[in-house]
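Morning run. Coffee first, then this:
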Amino acid sequence: MIKSFFVSLLLACMIFSTPSLAGGKHDFSFKVSRGDAFYKFFYSAGLSGKLLTKLMTSDESAQRLNNIYPGDEFRIILNENHSLKQIIFNPANDNPLFIYYDGKRFSFEKSNKQPVGDVSFTVITINKSLNYDAKKAGVDAEVIKMMVDNFSWEIDFSRDLRKGDKFVLSWENEKTPSAMIYISGRKTIALFSHKDSLGRKKYYSANGETLNDSFKFAPAKYNRISSSFSLRRYHPTLKTYRPHRGTDFAAPSGTPVYAPAKGLVKYVATLSGYGNVIYLKHGSEYVTVYAHLSKFAKGLKSGERVKKGELIGYVGTTGMSTGPHLHYEIRINGVHKDAEKVKLNKKSIVPNAEMAGFQKRAKRILSELNIK
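And here it is:
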């Protein structure tokens, strides 16, 4: 009874209080000190007592906001119109509470980020897809993209994931994870964060290497570049000007063609223009194309993984071609790039001087999460 009275009194004060101006900010962070109350943070973000009343009466989960303690943290995010978009309540001794507002109603979601030793962790169990299940677990879109960008060098998300597979994210008081670990019945892939001398964070396996590969320039030994990348080239067969979005390496028929970096075979096909052609996917961003091949490497098929330097086919002159050559393309997020000029990401390695500390930390994280 007494508790209900104080809650009602607090709500009444909130209704008739005037919120402070938020200025031009859209993102507010607060840490609870002795004597603080949630409504003070709410008003500091420029939000109204009327909206606060609506929040506190919208769901019983909102009552958790009446019980805050020193060390708890809040983040209040506004949209471009300075209206409430999201509240993240991160108690010092409990799982985070995510509150979303769409302009009409509130929704609540409690994260399964759990404390273990010096780290906390989030477990994503695959039921539908990584994107769906990660969002359900309260993982930000930025982190989901980071997971895809890194793990795509080893996992085909459209084929390899199985129901029940898990991703474990460990956290150490930063917006992005300190470790990202994929666990299935077939394999475990563990990646650990490390910052370089400029403060840039990347993810490395326990041996101190990133999953991405460095690209070799030419996929085959060649005599010369017979035609470079151009947005306006005279086509020798069609007798008209049109873009040439690749690099032609002139070489004798039968010259072996090798994968310039590890990747996934997306297509092995025969097309009217490209002739015998192979598409390789490297990570989440890169696709390379190999056209006019005389034949494919024995047994090569879609869905297989190839290593850097692995034989994939042989130079030829199939399709719309006037002589033996390899037509080679690099596409980044679907955009054709000039193979002679483009700068591709390279594999990174933790410096020798920092390797022991990195591996010690990786081992500690795995131990605390009880992952072998």
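Residues 100 and 191 are 31 Å apart (CA to CA). Good start to the day.
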